[in-house]
Design a protein that fits this description.
Structural class: alpha/beta
CATH class of the largest domain: Alpha Beta
Number of strands: 11
CATH architecture of the largest domain: 3-Layer(aba) Sandwich
Mean pLDDT: 95
């Protein structure tokens, strides 16, 4: 009896489907890869799913599902579905290129704040020659990274190499050369108290949701700056605005939001001390992701253990 060829279901937005169908057609032209919402398929034939935020209940409806591959580093879009089949491995997309882009974003906005670039941007618009006092010494500008996974560690080492004092906070103790490690809720406030620029790259879990709140901001030194490239669910947006308007925080750079796209009515758009970007800090490369999922499918067929499988009890 001939073994059935595997089927990979693409559960992605239809307007972006070409990003994935084109590389799949070139790299694996014989692969059955129906597009959910466009193509017909039998649920029992689906072996693997490639997605980012599938509709609730979809994965449960696939009785022979063997593994789910996430198009992003974060997997909260899957875990938000209470019907997710917990016996099916959920695999995070871990890619050096994606981590590099996220690191570039963090370094960019760290330096923009540290070197007062937005002040000079406003002066240029007003045709004003405004020289200020030199910025605070790099050695005295303390970076704090919430989340020392692959992205947080890469960003931290780059900032460390620019001579910033860098510390990281995570659930468990981490060992990274030149980066001070804080761990657990008992050390969070000590970590915040020594942080002048706070960078959030945490996974979004029930424990980390709304972690960027008024209490967190109050624990930071006066004049601190916040960068969030993780998930909008980490940030209580009204608390951020209040902390900036009170003068306690100097500003923020945000790439992710509670509601995306960000509503036109949001006060974040017009706030002079908040820089916004539309969730573009790191974009998954479709070609790299395609090779990654095909490799994962081949590993599964050989009976090998999949890498970067999410621990469902932790949420990452």
């Amino acid at each position: 009896m001939t073994a059935r060829e595997p089927t990979l279901l693409l559960a992605v937005p239809l307007n972006f489907a070409g990003l994935w169908t084109v590389p799949l057609a070139e790299i694996a032209p014989g692969l059955k890869a129906p597009l959910h919402g466009r193509d017909t398929y039998a649920p029992e034939d689906v072996d693997f799913v490639l997605s980012f935020r599938p509709e609730p209940g979809l994965l449960k409806s696939l009785p022979n599902l063997k593994a789910v591959f996430s198009l992003g580093a974060g997997v909260d879009g899957f875990l938000a579905d209470p019907t997710y089949p917990k016996n099916v491995p959920l695999v995070r997309f871990v890619d050096r290129g994606l981590s590099r882009e996220m690191t570039q974003y963090v370094v960019l906005h760290t330096l923009m704040f540290h070197r007062q670039q937005r002040y000079f941007d406003r002066a240029q618009i007003e045709h004003k020659w405004r020289q200020t006092f030199p910025p605070r010494r790099t050695e005295d500008t303390r970076i704090g990274i919430l989340g020392l996974g692959e992205i947080g560690t890469l960003a931290g080492t780059h900032l460390r190499d620019l001579d910033f004092p860098v510390a990281g906070w995570s659930r468990t103790r981490k060992t990274v050369a030149g980066i001070e490690s804080f761990a657990g809720t008992g050390e969070l406030n000590v970590f915040l108290a020594r942080t002048d620029i706070l960078v959030c790259v945490l996974p979004l879990t029930p424990d980390t949701r709304n972690i960027l709140n008024r209490e967190t901001f109050a624990a930071l030194p006066a004049g601190a700056f916040v960068i969030n490239v993780a998930r909008g669910g980490h940030l209580v947006e009204d608390d951020l605005i209040a902390a900036i308007d009170s003068g306690h925080l100097a500003g923020a750079a945000l790439d992710v939001f509670q509601t995306e796209p960000l509503p036109e009515s949001s006060p974040l758009w017009a706030h002079p001390k908040i820089a916004l970007t539309p969730h573009i800090a790191g974009m998954s490369d479709p070609w790299a992701a395609t090779r990654w999922v095909l490799d994962g499918m081949a590993r599964h067929a050989r009976g090998e253990k999949l890498a970067n499988v999410v621990d469902m009890t932790l949420g990452y």
